[in-house]
Amino acid sequence: MNDPSPFPQDALEANRAGKLTQAQRVGWRRNDRGLRKTELQFALFITILGLVVWFATGPSQDAALKPLIGIGCLIIAGFLVVRSFLGADPLTHDLRSGRVEMVEGAITKTSVSAHSRGSSSTSYYFTVAGTRVSVGLAAYQAAPEAGMVRLYYLPHSHHLVNMERIADTSLSQETMRSPEAVREIMKEAFHSHDPNQAAEARAHLATMGDVIKSSASKATAPPPVASRDSRPLAEAILGTWGSAMMSVTFAADGSLTADMPAMGGGSRRGHWSVDSSGHLVSDVMGGGAMPTNAWVSGDELTVNIGTTGLTLQPQAG
Fold first, then answer.
1. What class has domain 218-314?
2. Which residue, 216, 194, 213, is CA-closest to 205?
3. N- to C-terminal Cα separation, the chain
């Protein structure tokens, strides 16, 4: 069964080898026939327009101009007819060769709208490493807004045939926790005059977003006592816990320090305790002391903050 998605996974092996699958050939031949039909219809329209202009009655001062306009229209129409029958258009050339090319890097998505009386049309494009390819609406909507991708496209018509995500950009924890580094990345993402640099910066931001998502999930009830750390929470929680984007230190004297520079929170200090019901109570988020479910299981500390569960790992002190 063919993959109905705009990025067919069952075609990747052939596309990586620089070839179209049989299913892709059939689909693009159908598109090519539609394109040729449109060209012939346009050629017919241009022919009629040219003849009307050529033989229309009008002011004598236009007598010399009208035949030139008519001949120009007939030349354009003839070119379209010949190209349609000979298959000289870029898409037909691509289908004859069956060759697929590849480019990889940070993605930029753009759309271009054209308006005329009573109608409008929109064309969609991906640009990667300076190469722009034409895509359909479904592919445009399915592609990530930012990130690292590999595009497979037809080399002459520059139509996209497939796409796959590749490994996100690599950022160290030090970079993601540095407010100066994050500000520089954001500046490049939205203000750089180099489109490739801007796309790569947006890919960095996407990487940070994925890191945040990986450490957060929907808040859940604590697991059974048997699967949690056997020590009391007030003892098991001591030390520094964190993720790539933040760190939290629970000190034995009841003080708490949360460092979240890259997330816009800077460094916050407060107090913590464990109440008689075993809930973690902290005022570090502001708004007064707030009891919440928290537990240590294996080498992870999970804290429910509202409807979000935040998972942290032990960090060096």
1. mainly beta
2. 213
3. 54
Nearest to 305 by CA among 280, 273, 288: 280
Phi first, then psi, for residue 198 (nearest 5°) are: -65, -40
pLDDT for the residue numbered 1: 37
DSSP E strand boundaries for 210-297: 216-218, 239-242, 247-250, 255-260, 266-274, 280-282, 290-292, 294-297
pTM of the entire predicted model: 0.62
Residue segments in the chain with a per-residue pLDDT below the cut of 70: 1-4, 31-43, 50-67, 70, 73, 77-88, 116-118, 177, 179, 214-216, 261-266, 285-288, 317
Query: Which of the 8 DSSP states describes residue 261?
Result: G
Written as six digits, the tokens of 219 are 């808040």
> Which residues are registered as beta bridge partners of 282?
272, 290
Burial class (CB in 10 A: 0-12, 13-18, 19+), 275: exposed
Domain ranges of the chain: 21-97, 101-165, 218-314
Name the one residue in this structure whose structure tokens are 């037809």.
Answer: 154
Look at the block and give the residue holding tokens 């604590």: 222
Q: Which residues of 98-128 are buried (b: 16+ CB within 10 A; e: fewer)?
A: eebbebbbbbbbeeeeeeeeeeeeeebbbbb
Longest CA–CA separation in the chain, Å: 103
Q: What's the DSSP call for residue 19?
A: B
pLDDT tens digits, residue range 155-183? 999 999 999 999 877 777 777 767 677 77
Contact 3/21 with Cβ under 8 angstroms?
no
CATH topology of domain 101-165: OB fold (Dihydrolipoamide Acetyltransferase, E2P) (2.40.50)
pLDDT in tens, 76-125: 766 655 565 555 578 888 888 889 999 999 999 999 988 766 677 899 99
